[in-house]
Fold this protein.
Amino acid sequence: MDVLAMIGNWLEKTYQNDVKLSGLIWLHDIAGNRMGESPTRCLNMFNRLCGDTTMDHVVLVSTMWEKIQADEGVRRQRQLQEDFWKNLIEKGSRVDSLKKANKDEAWRIVDEVIRDHKQREAVLLQQELVDFKRKLSETEAGKMLYTSMQKQLAEQMDCLKTVMDKLEKAGDQKTKKILRQEHDRVEKEFQKTFRDVERKMKVPFGKRMFGTVFGRKKRTVSLYSAKRKSELSVALESRQVVTEVVESLCE
C-alpha cells in the first residue's frame, strides 16, 4: 500500500506537468526464490498500473545472473517467459537480461528503452488520477489492492473466531492466557489494516467500521464473557461483513 501510494503520487505530479514515460522497467531477481503469491500479486498490480495500451513500453529485466549458474538462469527465465510473463509479452512487453551488475549494462537497458520508444505514453494510473479525477482506491491498481485486502481480512476474522472458540473451551489459566495473547495479536493486525487504508488511501470509513464491530474501549478479561462473545460473533461468523467493509472503502 505504501509503495502504490508513493508511485501514484509521483505519477500524478509528473503527468500534471505534462511528463510522460518512455518506458517502464520491471526487475526480477533470477537467483531468488521462485514466483510465489506475493511476487505474482505485485506483477499483476504492475499490469493494472500500466494498462494494456502501454504494455509495449515495458521491459521485463532479469537481474542477479552472477549469483546463479548460467544454465539454471536460462531455465528460470524460460519459465518466466512461458508462464508468469506470458500475458505481458503477448501484450507487447520485451524481455532483457542484466547479465553483469555494472553501470554500462544498466545504461544499455535504459538507452534501449529511450531509443525504441520516442513516442512517450501516459500509463493508466496517470490517466485515472489526473484525467478521470479518480481516487487511488478507485483505480484499477487500487481495486486490486482491495481485493487482496478482502482476502486478508477474511482470514484474520476466521482466525479471530477460531481463537475465541478455543478460549471458551480452554480449562486451565495458562492456555487461556496464551489464547488471549493470540486473540489480541490478530485483532491488532485487523485494526492496522484499517489504519493503513485511512492513512494511505485517505478513506475515513475504516475506523468507524472497526469501532462498530469491535468497540473502542481497552480490552480486559471481562470482554471474554459470553455476552461479549455473542456480540463479536455477529460480525465474525459472516464473511459478508468483510465484503461490505471493503466495498464501502472503495466507494
Q: What stands out?
A: Strands lie at 24-29, 58-63, 94-97. Residues 21-121 form a domain with the Rossmann fold fold (CATH 3.40.50.300). The chain has two domains: 21-121, 136-250.
